[in-house]
Amino acid sequence: MTHILRVIGEMFPDAHCELNHENPFELTIAVLLSAQCTDETVNKVTADLFRKYKTPADYLSVPIEELEQDIRRIGLFRNKAANIQKLCRMLIESYGGEVPRDHEELTKLPGVGRKTANVVVSNAFGVPAIAVDTHVERVSKRLGVAKPDDSVLEVEKKLMKLVPRDQWTDTHHRLIFFGRYHCKAQNPQCSVCPLLDLCKEGQKRMKPAGNRKAKKKIN
Predict the structure, then answer these.
(1) Pick the CATH number of 24-124 from 3.40.50.300, 1.10.340.30, 3.40.140.10, 3.40.30.10
(2) pLDDT at 104
(3) What's the predicted TM-score (pTM) here?
């Protein structure tokens, strides 16, 4: 794991959260919106959204249909609009309108799961955490850090065990950048990958097509 951390650290030393936000509340809304959606699309939507809505009360001051229209470019926008209003109501009623710093309290909020809570505590409050999104999961499994059939929680636990705690947040960002810009789901850059020796899938991809066909015939 030390080798992987060194390589991805050299490749993406400035990896960071790419969701635009100015405070914990905006980050929570942005991460909630990012489920099954790209950060790029979320940032386009929140550019206007965060100008219009500043506080939890602002989101509750409009009909649900208006909020739906404001985020309709986001996948699952109706469900997310409902969760945003429920979340904002809970923040006002239970947390004085502020996003809680505690991970367990965060996961009580509508639309906020373990991954979202990890992103918020690490980026908004500086608490070390590893959020396992689709990129982190894919890279961890390709590099043999986790097994192919491991759950998201199992991947997170294995990373937490292998990575020093003070490097959790940086590693989370670097694994995302590695997966988003290098080890992509489709067309990963195997030919120039410095971690190819650890990746069975990449090694298969790099075998000449002729060899693969010959193997299939023999089998």
Answers:
(1) 1.10.340.30
(2) 93
(3) 0.86
